[in-house]
# Entry
Amino acid sequence: MRIKVMQDIMAANDMIARENRRIFDQHGVFVVNLMSSPGAGKTTLLERTLAALKDEFAMAVIEGDIQGQLDAERIGRYGVPVLQINTGGECHLDANMIRNALDRLDLAGRELLIIENVGNLVCPAEFKVGEDRKVMILSVPEGDDKPFKYPLMFMKSQAMVVNKIDLLGMVDFDVEKVEQAVLALNPKMAIFRLSCKTGEGVEAWLDWLRGQVRCGGKGERRSKGAEEQKR
Amino acid sequence: MRIKVMQDIMAANDMIARENRRIFDQHGVFVVNLMSSPGAGKTTLLERTLAALKDEFAMAVIEGDIQGQLDAERIGRYGVPVLQINTGGECHLDANMIRNALDRLDLAGRELLIIENVGNLVCPAEFKVGEDRKVMILSVPEGDDKPFKYPLMFMKSQAMVVNKIDLLGMVDFDVEKVEQAVLALNPKMAIFRLSCKTGEGVEAWLDWLRGQVRCGGKGERRSKGAEEQKR
# Structure
């Protein structure tokens, strides 16, 4: 029974995610679904990204939280459209929440939408929302055993940010070991070591994101992104 | 429909949790459900606790992970019975998983069972497993906004360990602000600041746990625990 219910939920979610994707494509907006454990640095990475790219691309943000407006308030300072979704207890965003949010967020002219998911290394990986890319963050203090314990997130993402590298040496974290484990699960993963606090390594992440938006984003260049998504 | 399904799932879970609790009470074993985000330090706190208390109390451990045996292997070194549950994708332990595990874990003579839940600051808070106490860990690098964003875990727990205080000053984390926020949500929360790495503050946690086991645990002393549980 439980399996049947879950299959129904996932099938319904995937259908709505395809509808979201169609809406994103119509507007020519490239969409990133940003995921991690609580406190790994999603909002801080988003702030770094907005500060660097908001004059380069027309950006928008959807903030997903169980409750509260804290992240939307932080992001609001950057002068881009931001919409807060409160899941009211749900541990992840799903396609229907995003679909409903799109009624309140004007995508006209937007080029890059970043969706910050609820802090959770497990469930968000299961729910497509219509994104072009799934990006995950693993932070150094979380430890280097996470790919072994939460493999789905590492398998489903196209890029991984290893954040808080300023804390390397202060906690037990073997970055080479982590990257080997991740590449064994997902050989195509793009990996970026950085510190949102100090700024070290952030430029490589920004370059990758620029390339994704330019090549996988608008108009005719969209076709490449669509192909990648199918693989 | 979704709400009805969730209500059915929670009602079934609570029924099995009560059955688990009856089994724990029959054996006179005090049960802690240990929860946190991935990488906050559940296994390390467990190791500190086992090292200090395993000769004082007859202990046992249930390890919950989505997959793998890493934590059971770490805990196995301490010479106490340990059972690994793999949830196979589920983001939390539920009462039925614990019920099934009890067929394979001999509780005779055990005084303290610690159940390490899947790393997740959201869903485990919703699922009783028959425990006497819910204990949560918040680690300093996760940031001080977590009580505002994930309130249920803070509301449901009887004790909170603030772990990795050796990193205070290296990350943005106002420990007073966190404790005020937590006590606003849950005025009875017992709070322990400690570092599993350096050992600082661990003794106060151990003293609390000793008191809980002695006063809420076996035989006639059980009645007090049962009363507390009802409140």
Summary: DSSP finds nine helices and seven strands in chain B. Residues 40 and 139 of chain B are 5 Å apart (CA to CA). Residues 2-218 of chain B form a domain with the Rossmann fold fold (CATH 3.40.50.300). The first helix of chain B runs from residue 2 to 27.
